[in-house]
Structures
1.
Amino acid sequence: MSEPFDLAGKVVLVTGSSRGVGAAIAVAAAAKGAKVACAARSTKASPKPLPGTIDETVETVIDAGGEALAVPTDLTSADDIEAMVAAPVEAWGRLDVVVNNAAVTFVGEVDIPLKRYDLIMDINLRAPLLTVRAALPHLRAAGRGRILSLSSQAALRPVPGLMSYGMSKLALERMTTDLARQLYPDRIAVNCFRIDIPVASEGTLANMGDIDLTDWEPTSVPADGIIWMLEQPDDYSGRCESMWDLRHREKIMPTRAQEEYTTKPPLQFINGLYDLNTEDAFAQGAKSLEG
């Protein structure tokens, strides 16, 4: 077992960090002493319908005494991804950590328009793969590194309206376990954090109705768990961790909700007919969740 991974002085790239969990990860990493590159489409010059921009995230980091860089990025563009990875290296001379947080979803089942299906797969699966490929030379040059991707309970159980999103997240978890084996000799740990406790991010709430948020956590709570995972030794790799299980097993991420969420989520892939009568909580319409 190697020593823990100290984020102080490291360079961290976080995709989808204009708002929500991505922005919280960037702020939390900077609080540990990391320099943070914040990548997303949403900027002050080109805002999106949902609140939050990478410029605002950078300002939050800088106001707290940290270092951050805004990197406007369209994750459907391979050229943009190459430029995104190059930006922190040009600014700070290295890259140590990649956090694949950006995601998009549209409501739809088997008849989802293929244009929307393709966009989900481009952002949620293809972009993380291209980001890792572009980042690997720099992570190897640093001597140690970390890659962490964000998943969802939709990877393990069918959530009405989120079939394509769930497919993309399950594939991302599989990519995690394969990459971990490939990159272990390079001291690059690869892990996945599955959000299976309700988290009140702007993107998620945009697709929900008027719901009770009593047991929903703020985005700072999963960010704490993700930082914990990044700081583990090199042998901690190939893990697809449940937020629920990690909280109860490691006694981290104490609740900041009004009431703690108490419904245990599935921790393994669900087979058979499951939740046939589950109400479609995302039935309001198809809204993009990308940062």
2.
Amino acid sequence: MDSLFQIFKVDVEEANRIASEANEPHRHDFEELMIGNKGVLEHFIDFDSVETRAPFVSFVTKGKVHRVQPKPLNGECDIWVIRFKSEFIPETTFQLYSYYHNQADLQLDCGICFNRLILLCQMIFDENQKTVPNYAIIQQTLNLIFTIVEGERQRINPYDEDLQKTQHISFKNFLSILEENYKRSVGVEYYAEKLFMSSRNLNLICQNILSQSVSEIIETRKLIEAKNLLVSTNKSISEIAYELGYNENSYFSNVFKKKAGQSPTEFREEMKNLLIS
């Protein structure tokens, strides 16, 4: 995906087009939220195939191997698809990983709450259609959508056994501590100590859930914020490096290029061109 944010609808025609093309399990470099108003979603994820009827919400985190096949039901299909880079809402993205890593699809009830989600999607779409969209409005509205969905998920599954698993609770606690400290120059031992466990156990938990080590997750969170600052501020590369706890600008630039595939300056210029076009 070349842009920070996209929103579009899958109707019957688009669902049939997708069905007619090769659609192998794949990974993507963006987050994807699907909100189904009408139709069915056949979803292959975590090496299992699940079919969910509308109304539903499906969230696929970046890097997950999956395949989606939207299908009409009773001749109707109406699914909002929202795609965004993790730096678009950096303060929320990692929490979404913990919420949805073991349950990508959620069937909802018809009613006022779901209708609000559809209305919010339409508001985002209308704003994004403007010649100069206000991305602050889109970001806040997208965060509100996730807040509503999380409230519904807790209401539908108040005693979800998976959420009681020790690993899941520890992982969520780690993300909370990370959110408060990722700009500091602290390592794995710091987070393990805060969680009253060994570095080895914390690494095992992170590998099981995100297939990344603690150090990789810390660097990924720093990278997300670095991209956010490069896009949303005029701060110099040195200022951003210092703000994120890097003692040397050159080290920050090397880490950024290794993970993002381009230098901070190149990324900033690319994003400026995308937002202007």
3.
Amino acid sequence: MEPRDLDKVARGELKTLSKENADWVAKHLVMAGRLIDEDPEEAHKHALSAGRRAGRIGVVRETIAITAYTVGDYAMALRELRTYRRISGRDDHLPLMVDSERGLERPERALELGRSVDVATLDVPVRVQLAIAMSGARLDLGQPDAALRELEIPQLDRKKAFSYSPALFDAYATVLDDLGRESEGDEWRALSERASAALDALAGGDDLETVEIVEEELEVDLDDEWIDVEGVTAEVAADDEDPGDADGPAGDEQATDGVVDSPSDDEDAADEHAEEDHGDDEHGDDEQPHDEQADDRG
């Protein structure tokens, strides 16, 4: 494992650190990325270790937030995502913030947060993720009809599939089931499976031309009764290309060690505390890590 294994954009964010420190942080970020699926607890330890020396770096706070969410620490995830948002000025993790509010059993706040941003300013995949999160919050409140409306966005197009479509189709099927419309739910679930298979084949099938995706989304045609992978006509659609003109059922749409003490779920003061950048003043580049075991793993 080498520091250069880290994504180029992320490495660029570490240039404000000394080379030795940047390399140390980069290795922990690489390990967090490699372990997040198979061992999320260990991935989270690596993210926290990176945060001890680079608490003011956006990608570090982002990584801590994502790993915290993965291990179910929604209070930490929410606070770190707010800090990442302030550092980066980006709303690309708004859906994860909404889901973190849901994890804290605050669906009303989740909905309020989701409505705080104009969805037109978000990239299309983020809009879809947000719609799914908002729909989940509606289900949490026992509002299945409203949950369905949250998902009836232009991207819910049964004729075409983008990389975000399987998750959207599955979410739609789940709400239909909740409404007692199981046969319709089964149809959308089948569409999700077909879309996943076609997208996987298009991205890595031996019989298809290799497509390099740089902030782009694969699109496949689902018009046929079933998909013949070798016969799929595919095109690449940019993230900011809104497929809303298609005939779809459009509706009326990573804190550091000491810094990340989870706020109380029951107190409103916790949210106010979360709005403070609680860790930046405690984590200068020269601060030594406390988790020596995780550090050795880096």
4.
Amino acid sequence: MLVRPTALVTGASRGVGAAIARALAPTHDLLLGGRDPEALAEMASALPGARPWPVELTTVTEADVAAIDRLDVLVHNAGVLHLGRVEETPAEAWRHTMEVNVIAVVELTRLLLPALRAGRGHVVLINSGSGQRAGAGWGSYSASKFALRAFADALRLEEPELQVTTIYPGRVDTDMQREVRVQEGGPYQPERYLNADSVARVVQAALTASPDAHVTEITVRPAAGPLN
């Protein structure tokens, strides 16, 4: 009997994380990570081979991952965003952004390294265009995404038996993007954004590359071009 590979996706109850989970469901058994047990259970009920993995990522411990002895794919998708100019963004917002977007990712990866090594696994980090350039009002978020890129680069060199891919999407049509546009005071124009399923297909492309290829980075932008 063939054993299906296992993938853990964080932030899997909505948006890009849910799209990635749906894309991987035909080929992978899934652990759906997130903070909302009910939303995760509903998502898992619609996907064969999926089960919820409710966890607070900022306080994850060895006990949370004790049952995971082999992992083929780890997709880091969960994140937070605080907009604000430097003069109006307190240290608390910077700390929270770094805690969720960087430290939680690092610690979960560290705890899962034995399982990833056992599966010669693939770590995918959903970064952002803000991880390639910083803009006014995006300082704390961009700093966290630049740090996430540095973590991915270090992990790739330290763990040569693993594959590590950073994906840099542009703006995506999600609930988070709606909240961003409210904060920016601009109209919400979903036709100008990437579809979450498009990002999921990019993840699939990285995971299904030929054995001789290690896809390290992918940048994907909306075809409509950047917002003004």
